[in-house]
Design goal:
Layout lengths: L1 H19 L4 H6 L3 H8 L10 H12 L1 H10 L3 H4 L1 H7 L11 H12 L3 H4 E4 L5 E2 L3 E8 L4 E7 L3 H22 L8 H15 L2 H14 L6 E2 L12 E5 L4 E2 L3 H6 L4 H19 L1 E3 L7 E3 L5 E3 L5 E3 L2 H15 L3 H10 L9 H16 L8 H10 L1 H4 L5 H20 L5 H16 L2 H17 L1 H16 L7 H8 L10 H15 L1
Parallel strand pairs: 5-10
Antiparallel strand pairs: 1-3, 2-3, 3-4, 4-6, 7-9, 8-11, 9-10
Length: 510
């Protein structure tokens, strides 16, 4: 009860902020806490400038770090809020006023137990970037290396936890009061946000992500990742090599440096393709502030707090779907959704094919440099209600990343289209992926995973049999005798036989 009251008060506070920006439509759309909405509607400002999504973005910016992260997550959910609203939310800037250099120094000293002056020969107290969770300072190590030092905001963990409790509570209300929205998995989506934020607030995880991405591209000079200094990295502090260069969207500076913008876009696009399709591990925050162009026209990335992963099966379905749209084979694009289980089998393949065509044609008929696959995916997610599609969080994150990457590439080289540049790579990758030997290998990997789970399956089965024999579960005596024999588990039908049969069935089903 006390928790519900606290969350209700927090919701009222947020509703007041939404009202000031004429953005209460978010709560109205979700039909959350109608009494709160009615009360705050009385003070809601009218005729506030901007589209609904722009007004909502400003309200979330005012509400603070947790709500900025929520807005970024909502910017991927065109299935829930619509394409125009999510497009505006994608412009939500994750930036806040910096905290003081003295606080940054205190955090560093608390992390390593030494004065900053012993750790660094130089430390700039003025932050070069400040976001909702952390800010970055330039420094020079004791041995003369130029580095970037990322420091968490003071008290950020407790502030986030309080608001994540609110988000979970609201998501639970939605699932209880809006059965039609359960397929969008609001509680699971909030848990995904919570897990992501928890990873972001332990900078050792970000350091590990940077190292993994760097290893994936260790033989590719066209895409660079800063090295991590583990001796100066901890839970609240991350120290990496300082990366310089021209911001990715500064076309004039790229031209002035004598570089070819289309060549830069091609390198960035190829790197994105490799991350998504080759590795299944991609940078999920590709805004211009995180991408730079060096003197040789190569691309460098920073800030690895938000990363995405996709398994091989999802990558294969995604590749088939993209090729289906790019070649206007809408039947293929539709079948992928059914094969992947994203659309229920009782829906009409023909009608879904028609829907895919209605989305693809208006976008693919535009000039090549204006074709947006991210927008296409956004509209595709927007028809989920009609065809009862289940939410796919891993694709939502990718779609948001694609939208930002497309915008950055278009600003740098208005005449190029990143998807057409990498289409040959997608086609080559799909040809290899769909080759019989690779499909067999994929099936073998899945089967191997099933057998690796056998000890857990057997353990669970043993516990169930023990419960049965001890009276924990009330089954008919004939059923018990058939399962374990009249003398217990060691009788005529041993546990290993039952486990083997169950494993064989599971293997067939998978």
């Amino acid at each position: 009860m006390a928790s519900n009251l606290r969350n209700a008060r927090r919701l009222l506070k947020i509703a007041l902020i939404l009202a000031r920006h004429d953005a209460l439509f978010l709560l109205e759309k979700l039909e959350v806490a109608p009494a709160v909405v009615t009360a705050t509607r009385l003070i809601s400002r009218k005729r506030v400038k901007g589209r609904p999504g722009q007004r909502l973005a400003k309200a979330l910016q005012e509400a603070g770090p947790s709500f900025i992260k929520l807005g970024q997550a909502l910017s991927t959910r065109s299935d829930l809020l619509g394409e125009e609203l999510t497009a505006d939310l994608s412009d939500l800037q994750d930036s806040l006023p910096p905290f003081s250099g003295a606080e940054a120094r205190a955090a560093i000293e608390a992390e390593f137990g030494k004065p900053v002056d012993e750790l660094f020969s130089e430390f700039d107290d003025k932050a070069i970037a400040a976001a909702s969770i952390a800010q970055v300072h330039f420094a020079v190590t004791a041995d003369g290396r130029e580095v970037a030092v990322k420091v968490l905001r003071p008290g950020i963990e407790s502030a986030f936890q309080a608001n994540l409790d609110l988000f979970t509570w609201v998501a639970g209300l939605i699932e209880k009061t809006r059965p039609d929205l359960r397929r969008l998995k609001p509680v699971k989506s909030i848990k995904t946000i919570a897990d992501t934020v928890a990873m972001e607030m332990d900078l050792r995880f970000e350091a590990a992500a940077a190292v993994e991405l760097g290893e994936n591209f260790k033989d590719d000079e066209s895409f660079n990742v800063p090295a991590v200094d583990w001796t100066l990295t901890g839970r609240r502090v991350l120290t990496t090599e300082r990366m310089g260069g021209i911001p990715m969207d500064d076309r004039d500076a790229v031209l002035k440096a004598g570089l070819d913008p289309e060549d830069v876009v091609q390198k960035a696009s190829r790197a994105f393709f490799k991350q998504v399709f080759r590795d299944g591990f991609f940078h999920a925050d590709l805004h211009p502030g995180n991408l730079f162009v060096d003197d040789n026209g190569n691309v460098a990335a920073v800030d690895f707090g938000i990363m995405g992963r996709m398994d091989r099966r999802t990558r294969r379905f995604l590749g088939e779907m993209l090729l289906g749209f790019l070649t206007r084979d809408y039947a293929r694009a539709a079948r992928v959704h059914f094969n992947a289980g994203w659309v229920p089998a009782d829906q009409s393949v023909e009608l879904f094919t028609q829907a895919c065509r209605s989305i693809g044609e208006p976008i693919l008929d535009r000039p090549q440099n204006e074709i947006s696959i991210a927008r296409l995916l956004g509209q595709l997610f927007g028809i989920t209600e009609t065809f009862q599609m289940e939410a796919q969080p891993q694709l939502f994150l990718l779609q948001k990343t694609m939208l930002v990457a497309e915008g950055t590439a278009r600003r740098l080289c208005p005449d190029a289209n990143m998807w057409l540049l990498i289409r040959p790579l997608v086609e080559e990758w799909m040809a290899k992926t769909l080759a019989p030997e690779n499909l067999v290998a994929e099936a073998f990997d899945e089967a191997t995973g099933t057998f690796r789970r056998l000890p857990t399956i057997i353990e669970g089965l043993e516990k169930s049999v023990v419960q049965v024999t001890q009276g924990g579960l009330k089954l008919h005596p004939d059923t018990v005798r058939a399962m374990v024999g009249s003398k217990g588990p060691s009788a005529s039908l041993p546990l290993w036989v039952i486990a083997g049969l169950l494993a064989a069935l599971l293997f067939v089903l998978t």
